[in-house]
Amino acid sequence: MGELLKTEELAQRLQVKPDTIRRWVRRGLLPVMRISPKVFRFDLIEVLATLRDRGMELGGPRRDI
């Protein structure tokens, strides 16, 4: 297991807005650990692998899935 991040921390790492992370979670596009209905944690390694598998470019201009 990699580093566990809060929504805001993951958004900062991926250079997107926290609302984008929340939207991706609602769509089932990101692996997420639900601590409670409103509290999520993300395994950075799993998220990066998932995005890579989906063909997302990281660190570039903001993109929405």
Question: What does this protein structure show overall?
Answer:
The protein has 65 residues and is α+β, with helices and mostly antiparallel strands. The protein has a single domain (4-53), classed as Arc Repressor Mutant, subunit A (Orthogonal Bundle). The protein has helices at residues 7-14, 18-26, 44-53, and strands at 4-5, 33-36, 39-43. The chain has a three-stranded antiparallel β-sheet. It is globular, with a radius of gyration of 11 Å. It starts with a strand and ends in a 12-residue tail after the last helix.
Task: List the defining traits of the structure above.
single chain, 65 residues, alpha+beta, Arc Repressor Mutant, subunit A, 3-stranded antiparallel beta sheet, 3 helices, 42% helix
Task: Work out the helicity level.
Answer: 40-55%
- The helix count comes to 3
Distance between the termini: 25 Å
Helix/strand-derived category reads alpha+beta
Name the poorly predicted regions: none
What overall form do the CA principal axes indicate? globular
C-alpha Rg, in Å? 11 Å
